[in-house]
Amino acid sequence: MIAPAALYIHVPLCRSKCAYCDFFSLPVPAGGDETYDRLVAATLDRAGVLTERFEAGPYRSVFVGGGTPTALPDAAFARLLRGLAALAPDPEEWTVEANPESLSPAKLEAMLAAGVTRLSLGVQSLDDGLLRILGRPHDAELALKAMELASSSGLELSADLMASLPEPPETRGRPRELAAEAERLAELGAVHLSIYDLVLEGGTPLAASLASGRLSPRPEELDCEEREAAEASLAARGFRRYEISNYALPGSECLHNLAYWRMDSYLGAGPGAVSTIRTEGGCSLRIEEWREPGRYGREAAELAREERVPRLESAFEALMMAFRTRFGLDLDGFARRFGCELAELLPETLASWEGRLGPGWGGGRSLALDEVGLDLQNRFLADCLGELERTGFPGRSRADIAP
């Protein structure tokens, strides 16, 4: 077993559910503090149990996400951070997610007192019309004020934007100033920007609006032009695209997310969190935490679901995550973990993609997709999966890789 050095804490509360979201979340309770207290106590207790069970730590990174962690009342929010500071003292990076409507001086004071180093702010857009379409509970003015407040705190600042957003038919094809939005966030102190393409999930209000014709999908050619303009603008400011959707000034890459992309062991506590533990033989253990509203006590851990991820699936997950980044796949680490060289496992795919593959930023023996290859990652992974499913591991039967 590889002991985890990354800890994720899930706070599933949201003031309102965004029109595009199908993640697990719970509405902010209307009652008193009891629900918040139970949630915080149970989450800290579960994090402690998992830490002890898997001999985790010292933690290199902690990430408090959601949901909206800052939707917690001030007292419960501060209690959560104090508990995490005791469990994971002095991590190299400690990130907390926030939304503009729930970020406040009191929340920032609690973060600084606990030792948080990084704030990730969900802006998504600086266009009020698009924010209404997304169902966001803030407008552009509030987002900019939250950026200014966060920047003045001294925390390292990351912000999210969304691309490929639908639009009303009457404004179809209207240019979106994505580059100007990214520039504005960088001017306000962001050293890291995530620009995610909207993934339309079935059953969401946004999917229903598109199906009914009330909204139209963004023309693909405009999407490409706007993203390219944003990338060029960020590059001129010194940002590097280090992952498919993430840009950072050198040294400001998200250490915690790199643990996911490198398929390191990590723990997740809180309703809906996931843990992945690397084990011997190339397999993994995956734990999905409880999701039942109101089940926040110690008994909730009994609802967690554990499964063994077989070697072949683990190998594909390692490829899927590593090739999202310009750091790429550590070839020596892959060979040690799975018992064969990547060239033995995927000779056809590597040969056909040779022009789009090269050394990664990770140093040593690494392999990564180039800038164009990142945009074609889904095709590359489809080729990888097809060859894996046809051949399995060299010299081993299908039974050797079954769960």
Protein model, in words:
- The protein is α/β, with parallel strands linked by helices and about 400 residues long.
- It is built from 15 helices and 17 strands.
- The strands form 4 sheets. A 9-stranded mixed beta sheet has the order 9-10-8-7-6-5-4-1-11, with helices on both faces.
- Strand 4, helix 2 and strand 5 form a beta-alpha-beta unit.
- It is globular, with a radius of gyration of 22 Å.
- The two termini are about 15 Å apart.
- The C terminus is likely disordered.
What is the CA–CA distance across the termini? Answer: 17 Å
Poorly predicted parts? 397-403
**Sheet with most strands: strand arrangement:** 9-10-8-7-6-5-4-1-11
Q: What coarse outline follows from CA principal-axis ratios?
A: globular
Radius of gyration from the alpha-carbon trace, in angstroms: 22 Å
Strand coverage percent: 15-25%
Major beta-sheet overview: 9 strands, mixed
Layout of SSEs?
Elements: E1 6-11, E2 13-14, E3 26-27, H1 34-53, E4 61-66, H2 74-87, E5 93-98, H3 105-114, E6 118-124, H4 128-134, H5 140-152, E7 156-163, H6 178-187, E8 190-197, H7 205-212, H8 220-236, E9 240-243, E10 246-248, H9 255-261, E11 267-269, E12 274-278, E13 284-288, E14 305-309, H10 311-322, E15 329-330, H11 331-338, H12 342-345, H13 347-352, E16 357-358, E17 366-369, H14 371-375, H15 377-391
Parallel strand pairs: 1-4, 1-11, 2-3, 4-5, 5-6, 6-7, 7-8
Antiparallel strand pairs: 8-10, 9-10, 12-13, 13-14, 15-17, 16-17
Helix pairs in contact: 1-2, 2-3, 6-8, 10-15
